Amino acid sequence: MGISKVVLFYVFRPLPDPEAIRVWQLALCESLDLRGRIIVSPHGINVTVGGELSQLRRYVRATKGYAGFADADIKWSAGSAEDFPRLSVRVRPEIVTFGVPGEVAVDENGVVDGGIRLSPHELHALIDSRADVVMFDGRNEIEGRIGHFDNAVITPARSTRDFVTLLDRGDYDHLKDKPVVTYCTGGVRCEVLTALMRRRGFEEVYQLDGGIVRYGETFGDDGHWRGSMFVFDKRMSLTFSDNPETVGECSRCGAPTDAVADIVDDRGRQLDVVCPKCQGSLEHRKGPEYRKGPECHGALEFQPVPEYQPAREIQQAPCDRETSGGRVR
């Protein structure tokens, strides 16, 4: 068996026929024996899939052959198809479920009126030059508990939808006149979050380009990042060096840990930070079969892995004459 990897990317680009993209992507991934999750919407596409490296390279070449996706920023991480229970390719109103698809405008350049992009080096320059920079975690609270930037604002959000509620009720109005840098795993959530924040009066909003993934590739654990990066699949978390700092605390005993598990106890089924020792004393189930993704409220579902039916040929992209010449962010 060859080397395996996980590839992730997103593209905000108007798609006139999301269903055609879904059918093509499903057939393409099946032909290459890839597993993972792909969300397609009128706003674009969001992809996390794993498989053998040679097959992933074929997937990336085929996908970037579609003009609308030609400039997609591809990110690679450790993992394999086995980190995902199945292949899921779905059409949804949004590629990130904030619950306000009507507020999100997308054109050939990406999300309209989003935050200013900062590379990892540009982020350091901003922090060095401004004492009032606020790092704002655009992920769910459970993710921030095991890893975050120095002095970051970590919201109590249990789902991406919760950010709209938190912003609308004014919980972070005191930050509206400060330089706010949002960050998330790969950058996709911040594309939308920064636009929503600007619409609600935040004056100086930035987004970490490429997210934590790109920052970790650049600085490892020698910058402003602390802890582990949570991922919504069997891997549960990733680190950027051999000696990462442990910032999480077990919710049961308080011991330092970056372990996250699907717990079934008297509080119901939920994702929680629980050390291995305490996991052993609880009735719990672990594994991506129970996980919907970063937009879930910890409400988990079980579906058996379907039998794989490989296709014979690499599937071609649907006609992209309406998207040629566009730029992807």
UniProtKB/TrEMBL annotation:
Domain Rhodanese: 129-224
GO MF annotation terms: oxidoreductase activity, acting on paired donors, with incorporation or reduction of molecular oxygen
A Pfam family the protein falls into: UPF0176_N
Catalytic reactions on record: uridine(34) in tRNA + AH2 + O2 = 5-hydroxyuridine(34) in tRNA + A + H2O
InterPro entries per UniProt: Rhodanese-like_dom (IPR001763), Rhodanese-like_dom_sf (IPR036873), Rhodanese_C (IPR022111), TrhO (IPR020936), TRHO_N (IPR040503)
EC number: 1.14.-.-
Any one biological process term the GO annotation gives: tRNA modification
Record region (Disordered): 307-329
Keywords: Oxidoreductase, tRNA processing
Compositionally biased tracts (Basic and acidic residues): 319-329
Gene3D superfamilies referenced in this protein's UniProt entry, alphabetically: 3.30.70.100, Rhodanese-like domain
Enzyme class (EC, first level): oxidoreductase
Task performed by this protein: Catalyzes oxygen-dependent 5-hydroxyuridine (ho5U) modification at position 34 in tRNAs.
HAMAP family referenced in this protein's UniProt entry, alphabetically: TrhO
Family the entry assigns: Belongs to the TrhO family.
Name of this chain's protein: tRNA uridine(34) hydroxylase
Chain's gene name: trhO
